[in-house]
Fold each of these.
Amino acid sequence: LNPVYACLPVTVFERMSQLARAHHALNLGQGFPDDAGPEPVRRKAAEAVLDGWNQYPPMMGLPELRAAASRHYARWQGVSLDPEREVMVTSGATEAIAASIFALVEPGDEVVMFEPIYDAYLPLVLRAGATPRFVKLTPPDWRLDEQAIRAAVGPKTKAVLFNNPLNPTGAVFAREDLETLARALAGSDAIVVADEVWEHVIFDGRAHISALSVQSLADRTIKIGSAGKIFSMTGWKVGLVCARPELLTVVAKAHQFLTFTTPPSLQTAVAYGLDTQDDWIRGMRASLQAKRDRFSAGLRSAGLEPLASGGTYFVNADLAPIGVDDDVALCEALVGEGGLAAIPVSAFYAEDPVKTVVRFCFAKDDATLDEALRRLSRFL
Ligand code: GLN
């Protein structure tokens, strides 16, 4: 295993953000947008703090938020959810992932993950005492391969952690990929923990295909969403968990002992936003798509090859054209000498990391992106 995982590591995001602060560098590392988020939603939260109830809300979440989430997912993803039995609110998607793992997994069980793996998954799986099994996805398409998944799934597999769209690569899995996953899992009892936090951060007119909308996966899926990503306010930490009642009940039991509940003001505001901000969401997609294109063109001018990104805040750059084969060393030098923070993609691998790719967050205003590109060109 990658030594970074030998014990609970400091996340690569925290490490790079600390370095960015220490060097007064521009931070295109940790993924958070410059955008302030929809004003009416922020206003609702402020009003709710001033005028509303600020004590513990129900453990499962405010009924109005669970109902709004059900309407939102029906409208956008064709998913039908009973708000009272199939929707729960958590303090962010990371809590939802932790609650799902702690609910499903016993020491000695196996959990399947796709590499590159979002950074929180493996430490949580290891702390739960489970054995990780990896399926390597390969660039440039990162498609799912049925045989590779079959080879990783066995009688001890309790869960498959599946991130769509995929952080860090920006790959967006289509319905056929989800059907491939369903076929590969036929005959197994594995639960799919579908981390869909980037469901609305998706470009080029694509539609997000939720695992819950695929009939052959629906009964074995825990879908996880994030209000922080939907409304460009990553500090809000309001997560949405959707699953069949039998499955959600188990995850709810773990959630009780992690955070129990989530600030009611934020839940009220997110409920309002899920019902009223469809146009804002479409505008956010268009704006981020333009930024992706602006930044990718700039990478090309700087001599790096941008890899295709169909969603997320991220574009990856291939270092091979400039002959660099150590992404960590490059990122450390770039932040220290070049004044620009980025994320080495090798941090998303447990075994045999790809060391020639760097992740940049393009969800920043254009002046910041242009300055970042100037610094990058100067450094290279
Ligand atoms: N999801 C964010 C990213 O990928 C990081 C969140 C965090 O810092 N834990 O950059």
Amino acid sequence: MFEATASAPVNIATLKYWGKRDVNLNLPTNSSISVTLAQDDLRATTTARASSEFAKDELYLNDTLEPLGKRTLQVLAELRALRAEIEQKDPSAPKIADLKLQIVSVNNFPTAAGLASSAAGFAALVKSISLLYKLPHNDSELSVLARQGSGSACRSMFGGYVAWEMGSETNGLDSRAVQIADVNHWPNMKALILVVCAEKKDVSSTSGMQITVETSGLFTERVNTLVPELFVKMKKAILDRDFGSFAKYTMVDSNQFHAVCLDSYPPIFYMNDVSKSAVRAIHELNDQYKEPIAAYTFDAGPNCVVYYLEENEEAVLSHLGQAVSNVNGFPVEKMGSTPASTSTPKWA
Ligand code: ADP
Ligand code: DP6
Ligand code: CO
């Protein structure tokens, strides 16, 4: 039996990926930017085992057997092909490429609830198997594989501030993650996760974005105009540690992303009334300070991620605590108040 374990943290996009130009290779319609959360907070931990005793490939997610989707099978096939090359070149390397795999993964946060479980999940899957297979590839090369499992997963291959460059090649080899800056670049950045609802969403990200691409007129404006401008501006705001601009662009993008969801037919609602109360509360707070000291963003789900600087923690927490915690009787759980980024993910 051969075995390796790896974990990968969640990343939360501040400029969202939403839309595929190639569904088979998982190539996006736009470049995106995210912040990787700390490894100790929201993460997926995956153990990959290869053994002649396994009759078929299996994936257990949070103790339940998960059907192997087309994209998972594709990622496994690519990883195996890379291992087979090693075995061909080096006859002394153990022959494990053809052995069946047992993959066991656990998320320490809600799965499929809009907190990027597919990102942490596929990054951890690719890392654990590349360790098992002793692949020599660097994180950017592995991000191309993780992308094929779930687009957002390519960005979880790095800590800190990360861009997924959409690329232009049809084979997808240049559609990969690159680090904009590491965690130490902006050490007082923090992220707060407000778990509004931990249940599985009705519309997965994969199907939601497909509905948007096929039906939303506003989506063309998003992809052709708004996102390319924000990509350049947001990268600069991060490099300049300009929180006011970073916060504004993050909120503008989150709002625009949810607007194209609403503009889809049938419309997709990811945010609920509690999510909206968090938006209102943060604008109220920023108005009080006459500049943004906190930024909300919502992925494909109702849960809110708030970015802020450490020196404003008390103001942000106390304002949100009062404004959001009991809105409409919904419990809002504070899941983590973490440094928003982490060092390069640990390889177990
Ligand atoms: P999220 O907003 O949580 O990323 P998605 O709809 O994008 O939700 O993806 C959820 C799906 O990702 C799950 O149903 C599962 O198929 C896959 N997934 C989540 N966590 C893992 C994991 N740790 N390992 C493998 N696949 C995972
Ligand atoms: C709103 O990466 O989950 O979180 O590639 O189909 O697996 P698939 O989609 P996924 O979509 C993420 C959408 C998002 C924005 C983002 O993370 O950039
Ligand atoms: Co996802």
Amino acid sequence: MSSIEQSVEKAFTTMASEPTKKVVDLQRDIQEQQAHQVLTTDHGVKVADTDNWRCTESKKNGPSLLEDQIGREKIHRFDHERIPERVVHARGTGAHGYFEVVDDRASKYTFAPVLTDSSRKTPVFVRFSTVQGSRGSADTVRDVRGFAVKFYTEEGNWDIVGNDIPVFFIQDAIKFPDFVHAVKPEPHNDVPQGQSAHNNFWDFAGLQPESAHMVMWVMSDRGVPRSFRMMQGFGVNTFTLLNAAGERHFVKFHFIPELGVHSLLWDEALKINGQDPDFHRKDLSEAIESGAYPTWKFAIQTIPQSEEHKFEFDILDATKVWPQELVPLEEIGKLVLNRVVDEFFPETEQVAFCTSHVVPGIGFSNDPLLQGRNFSYFDTQISRLGINWEELPINRPVCPVLSHNRDGKSRHRIVKSEVNYWPNRKNIGCPVSGEKGGYVEYAEKLEGIKQRARGPKFQEHFSQAQLFYNSLAAYEKAHLVSAIGFELSHCEDSVVYKSYIDVLNNIDFDLAKAVAIKVNGEVPTKPGRANDGKKSKGLSQLDFLPKNPTIVSRRIAILISDGFNAVEMEAVRAALTSAKAVCYLIGPRRNHIRPMAGQDLVFADHHFDSQRSTLFDAIYIPSGEEHVKTLAKNGRVVHWVREAFGHCKAIAAVGEGVDFLRDVVRLPGIDLFVPSRVQGSDEVVTSYGVVTTGKYSISSAVTDALNIA
Ligand code: HDE
């Protein structure tokens, strides 16, 4: 065994915090650069001057010379740095981690060791993305988020190329180019970027009612997640599992975040787009680097092959969920992200997912969206990365690869063999049976007429859109009305905004009326379709509040100015930090701030103008008379606090800080404050938390961290 193979082998059996087999595999290609290392050309010759192009009559007026091969190489490499961005999901960020089986009950359904062998730690690479915007667009736009997972299993790579929403806009892959053209910037002016608030998207959605269910999800709070770490992930399409007895089940894959499912408010999302367009990607890497490893439960829903037709909806229709009441979730695994990438381009940009990448024990269904996807992903990687894209370090499997496929542009692997075909006299690269690990497709009986058509159950589009709407909490419904109202207000063609009201009226009469009034639509006088009042579990985000709310990795701004009480602040900061919240001191300048007399100087991390309340989950205002007077005179700070209050953030204040808070956010006739005591002290703390915006965990957890009695 070579030393690389030995270290690869060792890595596969190591503990959580140690590198996975894939991370070790990547070491072969990682070049650690050292201080004072010498610059060379790409062909390895040391470079003497990288700042001046060779020319005649140096520093006078001589022309630059074509002969300068160092200058030419530098510019030539630069000219070719860009590759085509992904046609959708161009904006994204990725991380390494691992997958573990926590319950081996899936062996009833599959013989795939990745889902059944609890002694394994399978390396993964996950890429999160937005869909509509280009590579440089902002993170917190209203959009679906991609949730693509590459499992580097011992049986080959398995990709779940999922989203944070369990259904899709269309039922048949052949509609995908139409859908993407409609949502992407319009052809005549390339507008808008990173949003679906325009004529063409809503025009398409109105005329293609199968999108109604998904539109409801994207317009709900799901469209503006607080963090990639706080989103669910769904395989969306129906796959199949095959067990050792040769029995087949249909399956849906779910990832459920341990932190709960949380969203931004739309106003926050809009502002963060400008204040920090990299908000989500920074959030992910900061959490991983601080050891707060994002973790998801992995669950499956299964339906035996024999029960395929037992449901009101078609289980192969990607615009439908399988309600949990009918098909319960079984938790079988855990996904953890524990390592950021070393270099963005070769890892996150060059990673290439394919729904067609499955391993023995896992297979496809006849879901018409999945069938098309199985062609599309493989195809698109060729124009993005070239035919040998599966040899790129991030994409190559960790198990042995031997195929008779050869050549093509940018072949990396060097294969030492006299034969590259099968059969051959040396028996190299021979296919093996299923018993020996070969991938054997399930033998499925088919009969019927070849035609261009969809099954009868694919014709119904509104019942699950209604189920979703009915299952939302009142505040979630209100957010949804505002979101559709915002989007339709950005459509200038009245045909578009007026006609979508008809779609909404098929979902819910009150919803249609509320939106119509907002956007100048025709207010309906009777429901387009009765609302049956049915609800289901797991659709509202409130169903995902974590059992033990936590402030781990939440961002807390501590507002300070000269004369603040540093001793008290340090006590609170220590409590928050020990609960693994991340505290930032925000002051009038990024420099030393002078606390009360007799206390040591404190250095502020940022100044009031450089950050905004929207970038934080909670605020704490320490006591100090002079300090509070200074805060009250600063319009930016007053805005900070009012804005945080308006966004229902947790706000803690002590002593004079409480008076300041009261003055700043006073609403006539309403006393919103609940004064309480910090345990073991005489300080009065005021805290205010709101359950209904999905920020329950932060508000209650700040309260816990402060030990408020
Ligand atoms: Fe994709 N999709 N998609 N998609 N998709 C791509 O593949 C496509 C669909 C999803 O981080 C492309 O490598 C078709 C559903 C994610 O690299 C492309 C159809 C779901 C990513 C493509 C769909 C997704 C992509 C563009 C309809 C959720 C980003 C670049 C039949 C389950 C993966 C690429 C990454 C990317 C095609 C529908 C998720 C063009 C034809 C449904 C997360 O191949």
Amino acid sequence: MVTRDQRPGTHPPRTTDERERGDEIGRHLNSLSELREAVNACKRCLLYRDATQGVPGEGPDKAELMLVGEQPGDSEDLEGHPFVGPAGAILDRALRDAGIERKEVFVSNAVKHFKFEPRGKRRLHSKPNASEIEACRWWLGEELKFVQPRLVIALGGTAARSLLGHPVTVSSLRGLPTPFTEGAHVWVTIHPSYLLRIPEQAQQRAEYSKFVRDLEGATAWLNRKAK
Ligand code: URA
């Protein structure tokens, strides 16, 4: 069980210094649409400097199921929506195959700004570090407070780390309900972009099926809990 101090979203009111830095910690947000605007103005770490915009989570105001990825990629950064690029295409397919309607799920990320390294005209994804993940946890905590999911699927290690408040090995928690907050559990699985990096087709198919089974397992668990 995650303790109160570890839980994202539990912070003391912001200080004058934090306010002057544009820090949102302690600020009272009234709605997800207010949060959307505020994420875009966030300067809690330096990733805002090179990113096009902050990309907040999207979905119903309240949802039983929430999905959390790592950070926006190139397409998400340009379009301002989570999971709309190549990883999003695999995620959409896997959700369909698992019988989950994306429009009924709240989809977000652990980190709200795109971190990348320029390579010629391309921008190559770069993994967020511990302090960037930590700086962004407040936003995820706020989203959790609004959406109130009963199950949060962590897509990969960065999401799991942000949610649980400590580094996590995906294989150790994969496909199991992990107690999270009073009303919610976390369900850890792989990040869909892992599938894009598997060169061998048969292995890619096998890992994709395992990913779909994780998603099916998560909804089956949710449905059992609802009875
Ligand atoms: N990868 C993520 O983790 N999130 C996105 O929104 C897109 C790609």
